[in-house]
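Revision sheet: structure tokens.
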Amino acid sequence: MRGLKDKRVLITGGASGIGAATAARFLEEGSRVCVLDRDATACGHIKHELPLLGEAIIADVTDLMQVEAAFAEAIRLMDGVDVLINNAGISIRHKFLDITPEEWERVIAVNLTGVFYVAQTAARHMWENFSAERGSGVILQTASTNGVMGYPYYADYNASKAGVIELTRSMALELAPKVRVCAVAPGYVLTPMQRAEYSDAMLAEVNQKIPLGRHAKPEEIAGLFAYLASDDAAFATGQVFTMDGGETAGGLASR
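Predicted:
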């Protein structure tokens, strides 16, 4: 991708799943990369797996003080941040009537409030340090097809991802032209988090609903992030880019 060499990239939720695949992809593109994740064990693993990684910073995105400290550390290590992949998220598969207040608050805290904390911290840095030579900053946020269609058993997750989409659009309008902001909305992706929630039979049933007949690979979502951060996507902002194997094209989500 054009323009990614030497870009300074910070990825939240970056120690596993889509985040880890995205870190690997940006390193392949010649970018400088730090990841942020609350899982200390996963941070240790990714540092071993990706020796070119700048650092794996342990922080919880639901705590603003931890976010600000982690961002300051990333700036110290890379002398700035050009690209943010705002990816940290969780999900809990429950019937709507069984969701507890604690579960609701936790999902919203990570998936929406945490996204806001990280995005605002990054946007302030990019806005204040904008230079025509380096070009606009880029903030890319992980939404989901759950944010645009109804899915049973994920009411809290669906609501949080719909919030990410509207947050993305609002940010794009206010931060242009110094910062581009887009969202990526994956469909079903075979990450460890996703696999843990599904039996083999459930996985096969879901695959039958997807026109391409399978879940996405994390590396495929990473490729879309790389494109949107590159100079090839310099005119893209305020948009939600769906990668779901054709699932939502036929309204299959709720069946």
